[in-house]
From TrEMBL:
It comes from the Eukaryota. The keyword Nuclease does not apply. NCBIfam families: PRK09355.1. Keywords: ATP-binding, Kinase, Magnesium, Metal-binding, Nucleotide-binding, Thiamine biosynthesis, Transferase. This is hydroxyethylthiazole kinase. Pathway: Cofactor biosynthesis; thiamine diphosphate biosynthesis; 4-methyl-5-(2-phosphoethyl)-thiazole from 5-(2-hydroxyethyl)-4-methylthiazole: step 1/1. It catalyses: 5-(2-hydroxyethyl)-4-methylthiazole + ATP = 4-methyl-5-(2-phosphooxyethyl)-thiazole + ADP + H(+). One of its GO terms (biological process) is thiamine biosynthetic process. Pfam families: HK (PF02110). Its cofactor is Mg(2+). GO terms for molecular function: ATP binding; hydroxyethylthiazole kinase activity; magnesium ion binding. Its EC number is 2.7.1.50.
Length: 280
């Protein structure tokens, strides 16, 4: 994959800090439609610890009202996909699109079954602002064949090309997570190298991360969405690095990562000095 330049650009760190402070000041409501048992708790805790306000609202009877009048952003995660929930997801996504609200898709397991891939592509037709998945998911949605990448390693050049292609087709910002996360609008590419490998072993770390992207992008909408998504990935990764100093495995890392997200609010110099974002 192409190299990672510009790591030392000092302003990335201070811009990430300002972005975090804007999330805390605005406390955007992030409506999450996400899988019931695997990710709901960690996602809500991470979004709240970042200073946003999570709302796990998925009943179709209240979605139109809630999305229109309460939500600042919608985060849709297809983890435990079922027809009833899919209907709720589509109603919320269509509503967000119509009202020009930020909505973010986490295509969990895209490529695992034809049904899941097809339904994710139908959701993408409803024009998410951002799509965040791991390399296998993004490659499946771009129509590329993915080789197994089970260890959260660096996205490959095929993964980067798939992300750019998906961004061009969907006109969404596309994020590929891994040891180095990639964020692209199809032309520009940012890389984020904060984080620790153990994050990949936490069930629902990806889902929680996508919730943070929704929070950051809701207060930094396009044309600032590309940078905002990178800031969310970097802040989440930095929280993972700090959490790992106290953790002994994935379960305690999840807890310490959430605590670190909360504590980062008072750590300006630490955030500004340790954020690792660069141009690819
Ligand atoms: N090897 C790694 N090194 C550092 N951070 C990682 C690594 N693998 C994953 N992460 C981080 O863990 C989070 C979840 O990413 P990932 O495991 O790829 O998502 P998913 O759980 O959806 O497959 C992201 O913030 C990502 O940056
Ligand atoms: C295990 C599992 N099964 C369906 S959703 C889910 C969790 C998704 O985890 P992640 O957010 O880390 O991709
Ligand atoms: Mg995932």
């Amino acid at each position: 994959m192409a190299s990672f330049r510009d790591l030392s650009r000092a302003s990335w760190g201070s811009e990430a800090w300002k972005a975090l402070m804007r999330v805390r000041d605005a406390a955007p409501v992030v409506q999450c439609i996400t899988d019931f048992s695997a990710s709901m708790e960690l996602m809500a805790s991470a979004v709240m610890a970042t200073g946003a306000s999570p709302a796990m609202v998925h009943a179709v009877e209240e979605i139109r009202e809630f999305t229109a009048s309460r939500a600042n952003a919608v985060c849709i995660n297809v983890g435990t996909l079922s027809p009833e929930w899919l209907f709720s997801m589509k109603v919320a996504a269509a509503q967000a699109e119509e009202l020009q609200k930020i909505w973010v898709l986490d295509p969990v397991g895209a490529g695992a079954t034809k049904f899941r891939t097809a339904k994710c592509l139908e959701l993408i037709n409803l024009r998410p602002t951002v799509i965040r998945g791991n390399q296998m998911e993004i490659m499946a949605l771009a129509g590329a064949s993915a080789s197994p990448n089970k260890d959260g390693s660096n996205p490959t050049s095929d993964g980067l090309e798939a992300a750019k292609e998906l961004a061009r087709i969907s006109q969404s910002i596309v994020c590929v997570s891994g040891a180095m996360d990639l964020v692209t609008d199809g032309k520009r590419v940012l890389g984020v190298s904060n984080g620790v490998p153990m994050m990949h072993k936490i069930t629902a770390s990806g889902s929680a991360m996508t919730g943070l992207i929704a929070a950051f992008v809701s207060v930094h909408p396009p044309p600032r969405a590309l940078e905002a998504a990178a800031f969310a990935l970097a802040i989440f990764g930095l929280a993972g690095e700090l959490g790992m100093e106290k953790a002994s495995g994935p379960a305690s890392l999840a807890m310490h990562l959430v605590d670190a997200l909360h504590q980062l609010a008072s750590e300006e110099s630490l955030v500004t000095s340790r954020i690792k974002i660069g141009q690819i």
